[in-house]
TrEMBL record:
One of its GO terms (cellular component) is plasma membrane. This is Uncharacterized protein. Belongs to the small GTPase superfamily. Rab family. It is found in: Cell membrane. The keyword Membrane applies. The keyword Cell inner membrane does not apply. It comes from Erythranthe guttata. The chain holds residues 4 to 180 of 219 of the full protein. It comes from the Eukaryota. GO terms for molecular function: GTP binding; GTPase activity.
Length: 177
């Protein structure tokens, strides 16, 4: 059955940023695999993956960008950020330094993007509770300070990964629709 409707179509560019090895690429591939059963390509060297989500009967394309390792050399370019309307700022709950660096990533994001970008602070690797270095409270309070959504995820166990992306996509959608 056709949806009819006004033929509206949305394309949202979402960037995933954060230190090396926090799990950015795995979050993206988990997002891709779980919901749409895409032919899962290696994310290495791939600039972005596009996923189609349906919201209120409308087709929303989430174009999610992966840094493909540039973050290791602090070489994430303006092109990467250009046109982004959503961002996941990721740290690893088992490495405090990656949490502290989210402030740096946020500054960089704010330099390159409009303040209206929907931002989610993501504490990844929640499955590694026994070697946790960043508490849930610390994550929450930073997010509150900076006006970000907050979630802890495990790309490994597939915990909250869809939810992280969905919250961001929904927030963008609510702004533009
Ligand atoms: P990126 O450099 O930020 O893109 O990080 P990757 O996605 O390449 O992941 C870096 C390392 O962390 C890899 O060894 C992954 O297997 C591991 N990793 C990623 N996500 C998780 C997670 O949720 N839990 C655990 N235990 N390991 C993870
Ligand atoms: Mg990566």
């Amino acid at each position: 059955e056709g949806e009819g409707g006004g033929g509206e179509e949305y394309l949202f560019k979402i960037v995933v940023i954060g230190d090396s090895a926090v799990g950015k690429s795995n979050l993206l591939s988990r997002f891709a695999r779980d919901e749409f059963d895409h032919n899962s390509k290696a994310t290495i060297g791939v600039e972005f993956q596009t996923q189609v989500v349906e919201l209120d009967g409308k087709e929303v394309k989430a174009q999610v960008w992966d840094t493909a390792g540039q973050e290791r050399f602090r070489a994430v370019t303006s092109a990467y950020y250009r046109g982004a309307v959503g961002a996941l700022i990721v740290y690893d709950i088992t490495r405090k330094a990656t949490f502290e660096n989210t402030k740096r990533w946020l500054e960089e994001l704010n330099i390159h993007c409009d303040t209206a970008v929907a931002k989610m602070l993501v504490g990844n690797k929640s499955d590694l509770e026994e070697i946790r270095e960043v508490s849930v409270e610390e994550g929450k309070s930073l997010a509150e300070e900076e006006g970000l959504f907050f979630i802890e995820t495990s790309a490994l166990e597939s915990t909250n990964v869809m939810k992280a992306f969905e919250i961001v996509i929904r927030a963008i959608y609510d702004k533009v629709s």
